[in-house]
Each structure stands twice: as structure tokens, then as C-alpha cells.
Amino acid sequence: xxxxxxxxxxFARTAIAQTEHVPPDPPQTHVHDMNYAEMVEMMGMDDxxxxxxxxxxxxxxxxxxxSTYEWEAAAWYGxxxxxxxxxxxxxxxxxxxxxxxxxxLWDRILTAWWSTRLGARxxxxxxxxxxxxxxxxxxxxxGFFELEAMGFVGDGGRTAIRLSGDYDLLIxxxxxxxxxxxxxxxxxxxxxxxxxAGLSDLEIGLRLRYEIRREFAPYLGVSWSKRFGDSxxxxxxxGHDADEVLIVAGLRAWF
Length: 255
Prior knowledge:
3 helices, globular, 13 strands, mainly beta, twelve-stranded antiparallel beta barrel
């Protein structure tokens, strides 16, 4: 009996000693006890943060009768819901700037895949400068096609519509085939800029790029452009081709 009692006391003493050396549980943090800043820091997310990007979609040489280079670039800055866009596109032909434009737009998210755009556009280069109020939508259609539909209202009752789209087809992780197309419509003739009313021009391109890095990709491709109606007549009268197929080579980069 005494031996049993002594064994029980020794066991209890050992258990108490071991319990004294067990470290306390760490303090528990509950989401409902955290403020917004602490939650953002914990999750690494903040939809109020501001970001920026510069994208050179095309800087290319074209196999034309005259020395021809084209560019298409954009830069944006803002958050998840609102961004400021600056975009430009044009051509440099035989040492002079041909048809070119620049746009300054406010981009506001509409859905998870689409956004609205509002701002101003200015055409420059060949012919007189034209200013426009710009508005439209841009986003991803099913199948991850990038689409843009823009409307324009200018001085003197001028109106225009631009529809464009492109798609990245991954052949490998670095080799990408990109088809793209652009249509332009105008509400009235503008002979000084070689523009006729209605469907003015169509351009379809197919470019194969190799992404040495995601941010740096040379490419080769082919471009077909065609003018219609009065636009074709005005272009031919000015010594331009209304229908041409060109080999192109260039660079795509962003940072």
C-alpha cells in the first residue's frame, strides 16, 4: 500500500515538473480583431495601390516601295478600377510622318473583363490636324480575344468608329503567333486626310514573335491593308496604293 502511494506521488511530481517547462501557446490573431491595413499587409493585396506600364506593341520596318516604319505604343498608370491611358500609332514614310494619332483616355473598369474609355484623340502627320472626343469599350471576349470598339466625334460634325482585335496563339512557351485586325469608318469625307465616308480602310496582320524574355520579343510577319470607296480613290490620286501586302519585321517590348 505504501509502495503504491509513493509511486503515485512520484508520478504526479514528474507530470507537474514537465508541465512547468511547456511553453505557452502563441497568441492567436483573428481576422475580426484586425483593421483594414493589417489585413492588407497580411494578404499582400491592396486594390488602392497604383501601378504603371509602358507597352511598345509594334516598332516595325515594312517592305514597301518607300522606306516605311510604323509604331504602336501605349502607357498607363492607375489602380484596379481607374487608369489613365496614353496611346499612339502611326507611320514614318520616306523621312516624314504619315498618318498618325495620339489618344489620352480615362479607363474605368466596367466588369471583370471589360472597361469603358473616355478622352480625346488627335490626328496628325499627313494633312491637317484633327481633334476628336473619344469614347468606347475594351476588354477580353470569350476565348481571350482582345477587342476594342471606339467612337469619335470631331469638329465640323465629323464622326468615326474604330473596331480592332487581336489574339495571342501560343505555339510554344516563347513562340507566339498573333493575328490582328482593324476597321475604320467615317461619317463624312475628309479629302485633305485622304478619307472617304463609310468604310474607309481595313488592315489585317499576322505576326510571329519569339519572346527572348516576356518583355522583349522580335517578330516577323505579313500585313494586308485595303482602302475602300472614296478613300481608295483619294489615296490613288495622291500616289498611294489602295491595296497592298507587305512583309514586316519589328520588335515588341514592355516595362
